[in-house]
Design a protein that fits this description.
Layout lengths: L1 H19 L7 H11 L2 H11 L3 H25 L3 H21 L5 H21 L17 H5 L4 H5 L1 H37 L5 H6 L26 H7 L36 E6 L5 E4 H6 L3 E8 L10 E10 H8 L7 E6 L4 E5 H5 L5 E6 L2 E2 L9 E3 L13 E7 L22 E6 L5 E2 L6 E9 L5 E8 L5 E2 L1 E2 L9 E8 L4 E11 L21 E7 L2
Bound molecules: the ligand Nc1nc2c(c(=O)[nH]1)N[C@H]1C(S)=C(S)[C@@H](COP(=O)(O)O)O[C@H]1N2 and molybdenum atom.
Molybdenum atom binds next to loops.
């Protein structure tokens, strides 16, 4: 109990520091963050395959459980009279916390306060609760303090003598319980206060109050089709009318809302970056270094584009992919102003939390709509999607392009720097592969025989920036059948497709799908896993009708 309470009190004190110092976080966060950064890729893949996007919660829980285990060891030491060892272990835990902060970007003394104050408070609680002369071991009348006895692990009974055992034992217990209760109450109060104070560092309120200037250009830039780019006011029902979305039940909508958009990053807690503190530094192989504030950025011409973002970890048939309307400044315009020097073949972008990636300069500068995005689906970026500013580059997987909370862009040579995921076993180049996904039917689902004898098979296909020219399905390993394609504003978005299967036969079936990109190139049929450069292969779904 001493161990658990000292841990609890330490965490609560740390939480208070989090509420007092901007940018500080509970010691479990930097420690967990270090775990994320140093564990071998296989362990990470294992964790993701087991826990999916709950992996972060599991890691935080794991860190807390480890702390509780260490805490109970500490408590044991204290009770056994080995208080020096209990302090030493607590001190080391504090040091580990400080070291983890030190390893994070921008460590400051203030950010070290949570582990420092936390471990000091833990020690204080150990001192206050453990049996010792000045504390809980009650002096028998006329007797000497039982400090030496307690320290040597002797039973207080032997010191206090049989006559006083009952009283001193229960007095001791009562006093311990009182102190334990005090510590618990204080810990809860202090922790809650820290939580409340922390709220003022969060960007939710300023984000909600933010009015963004209108984009100067909402026209499609590449591969325009007959479908106009929907304007800021467009909602899904308008898209339906315009033909980007067939509106089929069970099929992901063409435009994914912010709340439904997948989230992938290494950040254990979402960075809170106030817009007025945000700076983007552009440096390296440029003629002029630039430093841009948020206000500077908003003064620039902004465009609005639907762009499909995909994660390299998205397996065939997976949902780590989405399409949103992004508003932002063309990165090319900003880089042109800085003057990219010849030979600067890599654009390295860095996040405030230290995450980084490298994209080919050619991809950013070739005229595609690579954006310094400030808005997603008509709202300022949600904090978890990179508020206040992130990168979005059509055609590249997120891990090599889509830096959230971006604060730094460095121009360098391709061979001079490898982004975060490259030494962790992922390919240095990450163009999005051509993939098609079946959303209807769902795997192993049973469907009633449709009343009009037409069974919709439908889903989405993407070859971001190359476009989708054709999608085919094969039912029960039959011939490839051409699907209908919905409209798209540009080749930078995914595309809904459907096959209206007439007179389906009752019973078990399966369906496969394959897509062709804008150049007519078919997606490869041989399956490949997500590592190192994205999954490939046909999505296949088994289902039954009228069974
Ligand atoms: N700062 C930061 N940006 C990041 C990442 C990250 O871990 N940290 N992950 C990238 C990856 S792997 C992907 S797939 C996209 C996902 O963006 P989303 O969470 O907005 O969908 O963000 C990219 N940007
Ligand atoms: Mo990703």
């Amino acid at each position: 109990m001493i161990g658990l309470l000292s841990t609890l009190a330490g965490l609560a004190a740390a939480e208070l520091m989090v509420g007092l110092v901007r940018g500080a976080s509970s010691p479990v966060v930097p420690v967990g963050q270090e775990v994320i950064d140093i564990v071998p890729p296989q362990v990470k893949d294992w964790a993701i395959s087991w826990f999916g996007t709950a992996d972060k919660a599991v890691l935080i829980m794991g860190t807390l459980i480890s702390l509780a285990v260490v805490g109970s060891v500490v408590g044991n030491l204290a009770v056994k009279g080995n208080r020096a060892a209990a302090y030493a272990v607590t001190f080391v835990v504090g040091l580990i916390g400080m070291f983890a902060v030190w390893m994070r970007p921008a460590p400051t003394l203030g950010r070290m306060l949570p582990p420092i104050v936390g471990s000091m408070v833990s020690m204080l609680v150990i001192w206050w609760l453990s049996p010792r002369d000045a504390g809980l071991v009650v002096r028998p009348s006329g007797g000497e303090p039982s400090a030496s006895a307690a320290r040597s692990g002797a039973n207080p009974e032997m010191v206090t003598g049989p006559a006083t055992t009952m009283t001193s034992g229960s007095v001791q217990r009562r006093e311990f319980l009182q102190r334990a209760g005090t510590v618990s109450l204080l810990a809860v109060a202090v922790g809650a206060l820290g939580r409340i104070l922390k709220g003022r560092f969060e960007v939710g309120a300023e984000r909600a109050a933010l009015q963004l200037p209108a984009p100067v250009d909402t026209a499609p830039a590449v591969g325009a089709t007959d479908l106009p780019v929907p304007s800021a006011s467009t909602d899904t029902s308008e898209l339906l009318a315009q033909g980007a979305d067939f509106g089929i039940d069970g099929v992901e909508s063409w435009a994914v809302s912010n709340g439904n958009f997948y989230r992938i990053d290494t950040a254990l807690v979402v960075p809170q970056v106030p817009k007025d503190s945000w700076r983007l530094r552009i440096h390296g192989m440029v003629d002029r270094e630039l430093e841009i504030t948020y206000a500077d950025l908003l003064e620039r011409d902004m465009i609005e584009r639907y762009i499909t973002l995909s994660c390299v970890s998205n397996p065939v048939g997976g949902d780590l992919v989405g399409n949103a309307k992004w508003q932002g400044v063309r990165l090319k315009d900003v880089l042109d102003e800085a003057g990219v020097q010849p030979g600067a073949t890599q654009v390295v972008s860095r996040s405030i939390d230290g995450w980084n990636c490298g994209s080919p300069t050619s991809a950013i500068m070739d005229g595609r709509d690579a954006l310094l995005a400030v808005a997603m689906n008509g709202e300022p970026l949600p904090a978890e999607h990179g508020y206040p500013v992130r990168l979005v580059v059509p055609g590249l997987y997120g891990y090599v392009s889509a830096t959230k909370w971006v604060t730094e862009i460095e121009l360098t040579r391709w061979e001079d720097f490898d982004g975060y995921w490259v030494p962790r076993g992922w390919s240095k180049e990450g163009p999005v592969k051509t993939l098609a996904r079946i959303d209807r039917p769902k795997r192993n689902a049973d469907y009633d025989m449709p009343g009009d004898a037409v069974f919709d098979i439908a889903g989405l296909a993407w070859a971001v920036h190359r476009g989708i020219s054709r999608v085919e399905v094969s039912i029960d390993d039959g011939v490839w059948l051409e699907c209908e394609l919905a409209g798209i504003p540009s080749d930078d978005t995914w595309r809904q497709w459907r096959y209206r299967w007439t007179d389906p036969t009752p019973g078990k079936h399966d369906v496969r799908v394959r897509a062709f990109d804008g150049d007519g190139v078919a997606q490869p049929s041989d399956p490949k896993a997500v590592a190192p450069d994205g999954a490939q292969g046909y999505h296949k779904v088994a289902f039954s009708v009228g069974a």
